[in-house]
Design goal:
The chain is about 40% helix and about 15% strand.
């Protein structure tokens, strides 16, 4: 797989309960800028979303935000991005973020983060894309989710190869190294990628 140049980051529009979440989001954005990897994200200036974006921008990196028109005020759209794409629906938002990215990472977040990341995992399972998908496990936040995914395999609802193609860990260095060596995962292509168009 070619080197990742545009990374989609899903994460909370709040900062979470512990300062480590914000600290790691800031460090992650700083590392993205250092590696010259553009950030694609939900376009807000609040919570972990804003922290990652601010860190990439502070490091001289490129940041593209994608946000539905009805959430511009609610999520407080970031005014200082390299580019802000305003779309009409959540479905268009997710599709456009996918189109702009060649890898998908979840930092800690809530229902929205899970919705967006699991859609990418499902598309990978169906063979719609072969991009890296990973969870950066700050403070063990995703430990229970990792256990649940293993349970899905044990119960016969997810193939082991598909589960194994998803990265979990707490080391940013290990995460970026894994993305650089990612070989496309173990999903067979069963649906034409054009079906993801909004």
């Amino acid at each position: 797989m070619a080197k990742v140049t545009s990374l989609c980051v899903y994460c909370g529009s709040s900062g979470g309960k512990y300062p480590e979440y914000t600290e790691q989001a800031r460090a992650f954005g700083t590392e993205m800028a250092r590696r010259d990897i553009a950030l694609v994200y939900g376009g807000g200036k609040v919570g972990l979303m804003g922290t990652v974006a601010d860190a990439v921008l502070a490091g001289g990196g490129k940041v593209i935000g994608v946000i539905p028109r009805q959430l511009v005020e609610l999520e407080v759209a970031h005014p200082g991005l390299s580019e802000l794409v305003v779309v009409e629906t959540m479905h268009q938002r997710k599709t456009r973020m996918y189109e702009l990215s060649d890898a998908f990472i979840a930092l800690p977040g809530g229902f929205g983060t899970m919705d967006e990341m699991f859609e990418m995992l499902t598309w990978a399972q169906l063979g719609l894309h072969r991009y890296p998908c990973a969870f950066l496990d700050v403070r063990g936040y995703y430990g229970g989710l990792r256990t649940m995914m293993d349970h899905m395999v044990d119960e016969g609802f997810v193939k082991a190869g598909q589960r194994d193609s998803v990265w979990f860990g707490n080391s940013m260095t290990a995460l970026f190294d894994w993305m650089d060596s990612y070989d496309g995962g173990n999903a067979s292509r069963v649906i034409d990628p054009s079906s993801v168009k909004a």
